């Protein structure tokens, strides 16, 4: 089901891009006001603005619905993943308690002989 919604979503996105590119801009109406062949159009003398706007709005509404469906599927998948490699709070707290019980490492003092350490010192 999720795959089907994803495929429909991608196709709707491509359809919206195509519909927006097919629509005429605001400056294209200037030629129609001087009688530039408006009677020979398929959608009548008003042009295709009404039809294309309605189809674009419909496709946008369905794209919006598929976006919500994909978000729902992602939420359900995220809530079903209990063990994603992240330890629970109890494991973290018990590890911190065990770390407090471990003896601390003794750090050798730097006042010892220079030959006891492999790290050169500047004197």
Please tell me about this protein's structure.
There is one protein chain. The protein is built from 3 helices and no strands. The chain has a domain at 1-24 and 46-80. 0% of the residues are buried. The termini are far apart. It has helices spanning 2-22, 49-80, 89-101. 54% of the residues lie in helices and 0% in strands. It has 123 residues and is mostly helical.
SSE blueprint:
Layout: H1 2-22, H2 49-80, H3 89-101
Helix pairs in contact: 1-2
Number of helices: 3
Percentage of helical residues? 40-55%
Mean pLDDT, rounded to whole units? 76
Q: Helix and strand string, N-terminal first?
A: HHH
Region (Disordered): 102-123
GO molecular function, one term: protein-transporting ATPase activity
Keywords: Cell membrane, Membrane, Protein transport, Translocation, Transmembrane, Transmembrane helix, Transport
Membrane topology: Multi-pass membrane protein
């Amino acid at each position: 089901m999720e795959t089907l919604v994803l495929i429909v979503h991608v196709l709707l996105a491509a359809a919206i891009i195509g519909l927006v590119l097919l629509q005429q801009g605001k400056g294209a109406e200037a030629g129609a006001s001087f009688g530039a062949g408006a009677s020979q159009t398929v959608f009548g003398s008003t042009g295709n603005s009404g039809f294309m706007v309605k189809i674009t709005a419909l496709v946008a509404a369905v794209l919006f619905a598929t976006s919500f469906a994909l978000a729902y599927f992602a939420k359900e998948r995220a809530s079903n993943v209990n063990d994603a490699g992240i330890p629970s709070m109890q494991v973290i707290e018990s590890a911190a308690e065990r770390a407090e019980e471990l003896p601390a490492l003794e750090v050798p003092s730097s006042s010892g002989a220079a030959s006891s350490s492999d790290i050169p010192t500047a004197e």
